Amino acid sequence: MNAAAQFESVTQVFGDFTAVDDIDLTIPAGKLTTLLGPSGCGKTTSLRMLAGYTRPTSGRILIDGVDATRMPPEKRGLGMVFQSYALFPHMTVAENVAYGLKLRGTGRKERDARVAESLQLVGLGHLAARKPRALSGGQQQRVALARAIAIRPKLLLLDEPLSNLDARLRVQMRAEIRRIQHETGLTVVLVTHDQDEALEMSDEMVLMRAGRIMQQGAPADVFSAPANRFVADFLGYENFVSTADGLVTVRPEHVVLVPGETSAAEGLALPGTVRDIAYRGVDILTTVEVPDGSEAILLRSHVRAEEAPRLTPGQAVTVTARPRHLIALTD
Ligand code: ATP
């Protein structure tokens, strides 16, 4: 794997609080990597260290194989887009996009060409003369992207770039950012707390918790084999069951309910009682209560209606799942 950037044993301490705790991370070149995790897990701090706005307390950051730990932000050749687009209100769209190029002393002709090319890439060529206030939120977002891309950055860093957009536009912009990434071949690092966004957009996904990396990999690999309870929970898994061999999870679409008591030779077979049945046309979501020591847990089955047995609340069932659908987790 060709690395665009590397974190080597990087730690960031604020006072007595460790925001990033000894992480090793490789950002593959030409790919889109997301840093994903709940609020406060250290995503933004990691991105800010990569950008050079914060210096690690210890460890090294390499960009293109060169130690950039002490390099100031403007020397790193990075483009950045924040949640608040940070456009200059008194400048036109074109002037905003030209800003970084001007700072770098790019000549007029080259500058004009890059501005036109970047605006075209984000589909805003026709709005070059407008001021930011005369643009929609989505359009402002695109200007911020064009401005970051215009300098042809080594890395494009995006910090929750879609969180100020409404739901429909957010989904549209996910595809748009991926298209731009494909067309330019840029290395992109995106911070998000939205697992759907990460699953849909990433080539590589890095899940963080309390300053540490919990799991890293391609979305399909992480999703199909979450390493621990935290990752599984965060990716929306349900059905956590303690078995003789440890904690397992099984997706609701793999849980089959069998009326009455049965015992399975292998896989899961737990006696339970139907608590709720949500009929939703093509599929059925059934909640079953299963005793767990002195307490009870709720397990869910989500299967196609035509494959589901007719059940009623209060009915005794066996909750079954095939061995290959049981995912072992560390707690
Ligand atoms: P969010 O999604 O809420 O932005 P995050 O995962 O990006 O969360 P960070 O912004 O990296 O989290 O913050 C990690 C932790 O470090 C938080 O608890 C935050 O309060 C703390 N922190 C960040 N910057 C500073 C600072 N300059 N001084 C003190 N604490 C800080």
Automatic annotation (TrEMBL):
Keyword set includes Nucleotide-binding: yes
Pfam families annotated for this entry? Answer: ABC_tran, TOBE_2
Q: Which UniProt keywords apply?
A: ATP-binding, Nucleotide-binding, Transport
ABC transporter domain: which residues? 5-235
The record's annotation in InterPro entries points to: AAA+_ATPase, ABC_SmlMolc_Importer, ABC_transporter-like_ATP-bd, ABC_transporter-like_CS, Mo/tungstate-bd_C_term_dom, P-loop_NTPase, Transp-assoc_OB_typ2
Please verify whether the record's keywords include Plastid: no
Q: What is this protein called?
A: ABC transporter ATP-binding protein
Please give the organism.
Microbacterium panaciterrae
UniProt lineage: Bacteria, Bacillati, Actinomycetota, Actinomycetes, Micrococcales
